[in-house]
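User: Continuing from earlier, I have the next pair ready.

Assistant: Great, send them over.

User: Here they are, in order.

Assistant: Folding the first of the pair now:
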Amino acid sequence: MKKNLFIAFMMCALFFVGGTKAVAQEAAGLSEDLLLLANTVVDQNLSDPDAANKTFTKLYRKIRKNKEQLLAVGKFFKEKNVYACARICAEEAYKLAPQDIPVLMFNGEICMMRKDYGAAGQKFDEALFVDSTNIEALRLNARVYKYVNPHVALEMLERLKRVEPENASADKEIGDINYNLGESKAAVKAYNGYFKNTKPADLDIRSMENYTIALFSTKGYQKGRDVLKVVMPLTEKNLVFDRMNFFCAYENYELPEAAEALKYLTEKRYADSLYIYLDYAEAAGFMETQGDMVAAADFLAEGLKRDSSKLAGWKKLVELYQGNKNFTAAIPAYKTFLELNKANNRATDTLQLGVIYYNASQTDSVNKADHVKNGAEMFAAVERQAPKSYLGPLWRARILNVSNDPLDDVKGAYEVVLQRTEGNEKANAERVEAFAYLSFYYLKKDNEAESLRYAEEVLKIDPNHGMAKQIKAVLSK
């Protein structure tokens, strides 16, 4: 039974071993006869597992009562990736010396080989119970917990830093963990130490990517530029570095440098699928500073194709379209904004869409009738949503005023404006607009008395109103 169990261990090891023949070599702590047996196990492992089993049994009987020899043989098998043999040596050594730090560390490493991180952490914890300042135990424990329990890993690394304040490797790990936790400020602090105390050629590129992103997100634009000057030459091509180089130059208002750096996007130096919303959003912001609003809108629209969930992006795109007087394009963009923001929409948001329709009706003669119809519906909705506000009927009157003839629906809307602004001196300009239209309406309807009455209402607020003065001059004769 024991033999079969051991063969199962050995067969498991086959997945870790290559077919290269072992050669005689020196191994720390191994005598010549033990080294010969260990090499024979490795050599026979693929070609004759039964023979390898017998050889290992012979070796094991020689060393099973000797902690140092168990460790030496176990480490030999670990280096050769003969996991099952290494594990047996580790476990037997642990039985002999459960508080010996080298034994505990080796057992932890063997657990890591089989990805049993819980057991590995337990062994490293035991080593730290014996010696709380053991650097290697702290380092490996942090490595074990880095992705399993990052807060425990940080605790281990901070303990390591108290023992070795200048440990750049620990700074790197602290930076990586905090970056993955979204703690950008803490990540920057740790990466600062790692960057300062590590030769450029030895810097980890992935950590440096994290570093530059964290610097950008914490507004460390100048520091980001300084770091990028060091790390960009380390790789022939790196999208994150190119991206951060443009972002930091633009946000640091180094505009000529930003224009040059933007070529990573405009020249499509990377596969199109690798570009993200933020690439285009930052490019849009840069083009806006250059006064090229059309290009800014084009960039932002492209970015929103990458991520259509960006509420602020849609709102900004609408502003850019309106600034370019491209109201027809602004309509669907604002509708998307309203759909994304529907849980928070208010009457003012509906009003804004109506205003866009109004502006489109003034510039798009082909689709004018549709814009008028849709805009009037938006303003009517505002009237219902905000029954005390005069803005809905005011804009409804404006968008429906499409003729030099007197229009009843325009008249009715302005009458609602007057009702809702009664006694509101802050709305005097809107009241003048409503009175003036009513004066015009009745003049066209040949109702001179009403026309004169409304003209006089205008002049009470604005004595210099040209049309009202003319109407009064003509009708008072």
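And the other member of the pair:
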Amino acid sequence: MKLPAFVPKDLRQLARFVPTSGWDAIEWAPLLGAMREVSTRYVTGRGVAGLRDRLSETVPEIIWVKKLRGAERLDRVQEADALQTAGDAILQLYFAQWLNDDGLFIDLRTVRFGLDGDALHYAPNGLWIRLRPEFREGMVALYRSFYTDDDRAFDKALKQMGMLRPGMSEKAEAELKGLLYRHFGIDQRAQTFSIDTFKASFDELFAFFIEHDYKLHSDFIFVGFYLITLYLTLEAGGQAHDVRAICSQTLLEA
């Protein structure tokens, strides 16, 4: 798909992870509207300060800043212990933002983070989105169902997000659940991250959506972008993370 000229480079880089045929499974009007909004925020910085202030207390391990002045950019850090601690905090941030109805910053790439001694700094940019409440709440329910092994809650969350549709065959439903679990179900106690593995699951999901004539809201695409930036950063850090414990502390105890 050829994106409109107003879409900035950083957003285009994320859009490249969507398979070419996958754009046919997206509702165009909401997508273009959301792309325009996010592109405007990226250029103008509109809403960044307010959202940053509202989220700044969600993860005590992270100091929210306007710019990374005086901090060593995370993509230049080599020490394994520092990368482990930083990666754990970024995972906390990833999960914590789901609890905020005002919006979430989707750019978790290494260039947005820096270390000043032992302190991890985060300088979010204008790539933020406010998801529809039912979709955001569905994602929270989805993750909670993974970590409580609650199949009934898993089904309810997928229906809330518009993933499970009425009239689906048992075979199609089982296939979709497996695909979504592999895509979102980061539940290991010592997980390393691979963007290639993530991309493969993204491709499989879109192949399913195309085959079954889905028309997805743009929320799904932006959630994909959010996950892409997380995977890129944690893959670059090269550490294994106890995702189950971090998710439990952040979402189940909230």
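Worth noting for the second one:
DSSP finds ten helices and six strands in the chain. The beta strands are 62-64, 72-73, 104-105, 113-116, 119-122, 128-129.
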